[in-house]
Design brief:
- Helix content is 80%, strand content 0%.
- The termini are far apart.
- By secondary structure, the protein is mainly α.
- The protein is globular.
- It contains seven helices and no strands.
- Residues 7-19 have low confidence and may be disordered.
Length: 215
């Protein structure tokens, strides 16, 4: 009996230690995610380093709690962090890195329609084969986040407008799941996305002397 209680106490202690360690790493990941947004708003290339480390931590954290798809999604974000760093450093003319550009409305409509179709397919699969809450909204935020991350790497101005919509939908989802602190964090993200849009637009106007560039 003594051995049983000793083993139980050891298990509980280990669980608390693991939870505390996870909380610390999660806090680091959140801080780095905020650093990524703050740096990206200013067009600072080191935003991608912050994004890479943050998503690497989240990849491991999600894997530890068996959220495998979230873990795989963060592997994608890690790859995009490397791609974004390369584009911002070498992807433009004369290896000077890409400049902020604005895409045409038609191009954005094409992206929206294509991503919506993919979201509906993924949402249907989630609704049919998983116990996911709000499967279609969940799928939409994930699919549009994947697409919008690519736009950030390409320095497409309108990426910030996509993030505003994605973050608002995410706030709705988190509020309905009782995740109040996460909802508050995403309210901050909305404000940062709006600020990022105006900062990038100013940068683009200065570069093109008031004329929008179209990629």
């Amino acid at each position: 009996m003594i051995d049983f209680w000793s083993a139980l106490a050891a298990t509980v202690t280990q669980a608390f230690e693991q939870a505390n360690a996870m909380t610390v790493w999660e806090a680091v990941a959140v801080l780095l995610a905020l650093a990524y947004l703050a740096l990206a708003m200013r067009g600072n290339i080191w935003c991608w380093a912050a994004a890479f480390v943050s998503t690497a931590i989240y990849t491991l954290l999600f894997w530890e709690v068996s959220l495998l798809m979230e873990s795989v999604l963060n592997v994608y974000y890690m790859v995009m962090a490397g791609y974004g760093f390369w584009l911002w450093r070498y992807g433009g003319g004369e290896d000077q890195g890409v400049e902020v550009v604005s895409w045409s409305l038609g191009r954005h409509l094409y992206l929206i329609v294509a991503t919506t179709v993919v979201s509906l397919v993924v949402g249907h699969l989630m609704a049919s084969h998983t116990q996911a809450s709000y499967p279609y909204l969940d799928a939409a935020t994930s699919c549009f986040a994947v697409m919008t991350t690519y736009l950030v790497a390409r320095k497409v101005l309108e990426n910030w407008l996509y993030w505003v919509v994605i973050d608002f939908v995410s706030i709705y989802l988190y509020l309905n799941k009782g995740l109040m602190l996460t909802s508050m964090l995403f309210i901050l993200y909305v404000g940062m996305a709006i600020g990022g849009y105006f900062l990038w637009r100013t940068s683009m106007q200065q570069t093109s002397q008031g004329d929008y560039s179209y990629d």
